[in-house]
Each structure stands twice: as structure tokens, then as C-alpha cells.
Amino acid sequence: MSNAASANGQSFAADLLASVRHPDFWGFSSWLDLVTKYRRSALGLVWIFLPPVCYVFGIGYFYSLLFGRESLPFMVHLGLGYILWKMITQVITGASTTMATHRAFIMDGRIRYTDYVLRIFAKSAFYFIITAVILVPLVALVTPTLLGVMSLLVTLPIFILNVLWLGVVVAVLGARFPDLHELSTTVFIFGFLLTPIIWQASLTPADTWRGFVARLNPAFHLIEFVRAPVLGEPIEQLTYWVIIGLTVGGCVLAAYVYRRYSRFIAVWL
């Protein structure tokens, strides 16, 4: 696949496949960014573990007492919600500026734009994997059945696919509208409060006003879709329909936006 083909409207699927086959740019550079960020600190990569440890065990224990819940299951609830939410926010906020950040590469002729989206995605995936290590023993203690853990083989790839198409759309639009970065940061402040991370979905029944408002938030369904089976909780039927709509509609939208507007990115920058 040539760069010229991408500039003239190459399909999203073709560019993404080419990027996946050549991870040397986005994969290695993402890991290098992560390592060099902490290289000069005394604790090094230990700093990656400290925030989630404090969040899961410190805030998790505090809020479990506040809500009158069992500490260990609530820590898992909070921890899974935390790492899934963090991946969503890291990819979207990073994607909103990734084209501008890589402007020199683009102007130099490297215009397979999926490379820059995957660079942001890979960096967030490294954080996700490292943080997930903390949750593995806790999940093993509270998950009622092996089937709950096995559900991640289905739910997690679907979650990742949705985060990926969101990143692609935001990356293209972010090149045209620089304010998208500030907008997304502001939206996430309110989105965190409307997402079942420090609170549980059962506190907002679907037949109540607050439950209706909470379920307008796509992150509500994305996180519950992954987390609920692990904790042995049922997934709402509405969540299944939202996930199907997001996955199918989102992939179609990403393919259209990428093919229609990626050719203008260099001009916008």
C-alpha cells in the first residue's frame, strides 16, 4: 500500500491492516515514550503502579465503607471501572491532538494516519496491561465462576474495537477542530460522574430519571458490558443493544470519516 493511496482516500481497514502488520513505528515508540518518561525518576516504572494501587485500595476501601459494601468486591468493581475508563479517556484525549503532534512526520510524507492513532492506543494499552496486573489476584478472589473471567475473551475485544474507532474519528476531527481536545477534557469531567465507577449501576435503576440520564452515557454501557459478567452480575438488555449499535455504527462511521476526510489532514495542519 502506498502513502499516495492513503492520501487519495484509502480505506480505513486497509490502512489499519497495514499499520498492524508494521508495528515498528507505533509499537516501539509508544513503549519508548513510556520508559523515557520515568527514566530519570528514582522509582522508575514503579510510578505506573502507584496511582492505581492508591485508587483501588485507598479510594476503593473508603467508598466501600461509605456505601456500606463489602470491601473486596467493591475494590474489584472500582478497579475494573477505573482501568476501562482510563483507557477510554487516554485514547480520546490523546487522539484529539495526535495529528498535530505528528505534524512533522505528516509533512514529511508519512501519511498512513492509522499509525498515529495506534501509537496513542498502544500507549494506553501498556498502562491498561500494567494496571490490570494489580487486579488479577483480586478478580480471582471475588469472581464467582470461571465463566465470568472467560467472558473477557469476548467482551474485552469488543470494548477495544469501540475505543479504537472512537480514537480514529476523534483523531481526524481533531486535526480540523483543535478545540476538540479541550472539549473532550471538559466532557470527561462530567462523564466520570455519570459513569458507574465509584458507584454501582444498581443504584440508578433504568426506570428512574437518574437511571435514564446515566444510560445516555455510552461509557456506562461499555464498562458494564465488560465488568458485569466478571462480577457475576447480569447485563441489561439495553446495554446489549447499545453495544451492538456502537460497534456496528461506529465502525461504519470511522471508515466513512477516514476515507472522506483523511486526505485533508495535511491541509488542516
TrEMBL record:
Annotated TM spans: 42-63, 83-105, 125-143, 149-173, 180-199, 238-258
InterPro entries attached to this UniProt entry: ABC_2_transport
Coiled coil residues, start to end: none
This protein's UniProt keywords: Membrane, Transmembrane, Transmembrane helix, Transport
Family, per entry: Belongs to the ABC-2 integral membrane protein family.
Name of the featured protein: ABC transporter permease
Organism: Lysobacter zhanggongensis
